[in-house]
Design goal:
Residues 2-229 form the ABC transporter domain. With 232 residues, the protein is of the alpha/beta class. 32% of the residues lie in helices and 27% in strands. It has eight helices and ten strands. The protein has helices at residues 40-48, 69-75, 91-102, 108-114, 130-144, 160-174, 206-210, 227-231; strands at 2-11, 14-24, 29-34, 55-60, 63-64, 76-79, 148-152, 180-186, 190-196, 219-223. The protein binds adenosine-5'-triphosphate.
Length: 232
């Protein structure tokens, strides 16, 4: 589904990654690990179509995502470091706005339930704590109805409850069938990609709330600093 060939990226005369190739099939999960500054966010932004790699190409169902971005843009959702929410809107208004952009109003309830946003729906985004802000941003994954999720540090600022909710979302999105693919960046230049297995906690009802939106959900790419939390 997503085919990456010989990706390289140089920034400020420093090679961040070189000749990185991997394929991501539906239902796969890719975990990107590496030291601070090694290029994880840069790689994700390249895969999202936001930062062309120095060389190599990325194809989504045989379409180069930089030459033919339209199909790809509507097929993926990206949650970066910045939550990209509107300060002056309430939580509900933010979610409604995203659903309006994607024409997915029928997914609003599932998104609210899955992130358990009911207590803050009428609060202005600017008045929320960091953890709640992150939860609101993650709700965008659900209303996007995207095949591919890119999440940069998904667990940043989350408490244990929210952490479990996000693990559930990841599990449901990828249907937990296939082994993960782990891409590791070491010392900024050495790249390896291999299969690994992540164990997830038992789900706690989120699946039911997500039922209607499940069909379109297939692949997840995450950058994570705390790999061991998924494995233990
Ligand atoms: N806008 C930019 N312009 C130039 N260089 C940048 C820019 N953003 C990041 N860099 C550089 O690219 C390198 C990789 O940064 P990146 O944010 O991809 O790393 P990371 O692995 O995600 O780091 P962290 O774990 O700290 O979030 C760093 O050396 C950084 O200084």
């Amino acid at each position: 589904m997503l085919e990456c060939k010989n990706l390289s990226c140089t920034r400020n005369n420093k090679t961040l990654f070189k000749n990185l190739s991997f394929n991501a099939e539906p239902q796969s999960k890719i975990l990107i690990t590496g030291q601070n500054g090694s290029g994880k966010t840069t790689l994700i932004r390249s895969l999202c179509g936001l930062l062309p790699p120095t060389s190599g190409n990325i194809k989504y169902y045989d379409n180069d995502i930089y030459e033919n971005p339209k199909l790809y843009t509507s097929a993926m959702a990206y949650i970066g470091h910045k939550n990209a929410c509107k300060d002056n809107l309430t939580v509900m208004q933010n979610i409604e706005y995203w659903a309006g952009v994607r024409n997915t109003r029928e997914l609003i309830i599932a998104a609210v339930c899955c992130l358990q946003l009911q207590p803050v729906l009428n609060i202005r985004y600017s008045e929320l704590s960091s953890g709640w802000r992150r939860r609101v941003a993650l709700a965008r994954l659900l209303v996007s109805n995207a095949n591919i999720w890119f999440i940069d540090e998904p667990f940043c600022n989350l408490d244990n409850t929210a952490y479990d909710l996000v693990i559930n979302l990841i599990k449901i999105h990828s249907e937990q069938n296939d082994p993960d693919l782990e891409v590791q960046i070491i010392d900024g230049t050495i790249i390896r990609a291999h299969a690994c297995t992540a164990e997830y906690k038992k789900d706690s009802g989120a699946q039911e709330a997500l039922g209607r939106s499940k069909d379109g959900l297939q692949l997840l790419l995450i950058k994570k600093m705390i790999l061991h939390r998924l494995k233990h």
